[in-house]
Amino acid sequence: MPMQPWFTDAKLGIFLHYGIYAVDGVAESWSFYTGEVTHERYMKQLDGFTASLYDPRAWADLFARAGARYAVLTARHHDGVALWDTAHHNLDVARDTPAGRDLIGGFADALRARDLKVGLYYSHSDWNHPDYPSLRPVQPGDVPPSRFSHAEPGAEDPAAWERYLAYRDGQVGELVDRFRPDLLWFDGEWERTEEQWRMRELADLIVAGNPDTVLNARMLSHGDYATPEQGVPLRAPDGPWELCLTVNGSWGHRPDDRDFKSVGQLVRYFTETIGLGGNLLLAVGPREDGTIPSEQTERLEGLGAWIARHAEAVYGTVAGLPAGHHYGPSTLSADRRTLYLVCFDAPREAVSVRGLRNAVRRVTVLGTGGELGHRVTGGLHAVPGVTWIDAPAAEDLDAHATVLAVELDGELDLYRGSGRG
Ligand code: GLC
């Protein structure tokens, strides 16, 4: 299926890991899997999950201020606690926590009211479902199997596995029919093979409900885009992609994690990602009551303010220059006639672009409109010279990253050779 254009044009999404793990501020699902806390203590958090200040409209306003065009909410993480009142019940916040209601419908409505696309995260695995640990590991993986994920030797139960798949299909079908997500963000795929997951049947079910649903790569061969996690790729993955990244070091709410990225660092992550043609899916962890800590909202707003000043270089653009032409990331307008050069530090004398075959018509500083002089030195026959752009004046510099809009005489035309004229 061709990628939905809204996705590649969106550039920024917000990822929300919202669940009972926020009650004690422990790692989402993993904390009982790895034994960081006992299963009993983890499950005790069900009694403390209130969503008492949950205001999805305030979330949507914040995401819009951040410049995001979509958001992805954990409808059900590996701990199996569904955030909606599911007809395929094992655990859900409506029946099993004081929150006592569906939390997804309001989220979807609030996003749509702000013109944001709706993404729902769903874990294939459910470490709390009695039928889930019914198969043995097929191949050794990075994560050691546990009693929550796999059966003991001799205790496999194929009938239980069939029941589990029916439960998963029931829940996913319900999400598609009821909330019509624009994007389904799967996870937890590493514990089974594509065949064991019956991935094709699952993809068919989603497409039958809504053929426009975007699927991430954790649908294995049925995914539409790659999902590098926590680190900027050095080369763009093939096809559409999205980097998921936490604002501090945690997916969910962990008050002792103070390791926040600065707004300046987030601007770098963001521009490096879109410069390689990807989206950034930036993760925040709401408290159990549904509020988002100020350290996270401030950073989203800081990134959003930078994006608002530089929107033309962001939305609807495509990947910019390959490494080596300019010392920093860049993007390119959809018509390929304007290049946006990102400069992190204050250029001193000039910004140089190498290998540019086009003549430059005009260079301006995005946001302030200041016009900059430019000229070419060198070049012989097919090998272009260097395009020098005068350094912007101090008052035209942005605190995080200055963007120069370079208008070309035609579509971008690059020289990629080794210089023998
Ligand atoms: C990993 C983790 C999970 C987190 C996800 C986000 O797969 O299992 O806890 O939700 O990354 O990408």
Notes on the structure:
With 421 residues, the chain is α/β, with parallel strands linked by helices. The protein has 2 domains: 5-309, TIM Barrel (Alpha-Beta Barrel), CATH 3.20.20.80; 317-408, Immunoglobulin-like (Sandwich). The chain is built from 12 helices and 18 strands. The strands form 4 sheets. It has a 7-stranded parallel β-sheet with strand order 7-6-5-2-1-9-8. Strand 14 and strand 15 (371-372) form a beta hairpin. Helix 8 (158-179) packs parallel to helix 10. The longest helix has 22 residues, at 158-179. The protein starts with a helix and ends in a 13-residue tail after the last strand. The model has no long low-confidence stretch (mean pLDDT 96). The protein binds alpha-D-glucopyranose. Alpha-D-glucopyranose (GLC) is lined by residues 17, 28, 30, 187, 229, 244, 251.
Concise account of the structure shown:
This protein has 421 residues and is of the alpha/beta class. The protein contains twelve helices and 18 strands.
Average pLDDT, to the nearest integer? 96
Q: How many domains is the backbone divided into?
A: 2
What is the quaternary state of this protein?
single chain
**What's the main sheet like?**
7 strands, parallel
According to CATH, the homologous superfamily of the largest domain is: Glycosidases
List the helices and strands and how they pair.
Elements: H1 5-10, E1 12-16, H2 21-24, H3 30-33, H4 39-44, H5 56-65, E2 70-76, E3 81-82, E4 91-92, H6 93-96, H7 104-113, E5 117-123, H8 158-179, E6 183-187, H9 194-197, H10 199-209, E7 214-215, E8 242-246, H11 263-275, E9 279-284, H12 294-309, E10 318-319, E11 330-332, E12 338-343, E13 350-354, E14 360-365, E15 371-372, E16 374-380, E17 383-390, E18 402-408
Parallel strand pairs: 1-2, 1-9, 2-5, 3-4, 5-6, 6-7, 8-9
Antiparallel strand pairs: 10-11, 11-12, 12-18, 13-17, 14-15, 14-18, 16-17
Residues 17, 28, 30, 187, 229, 244, 251 line the site of alpha-D-glucopyranose (GLC).
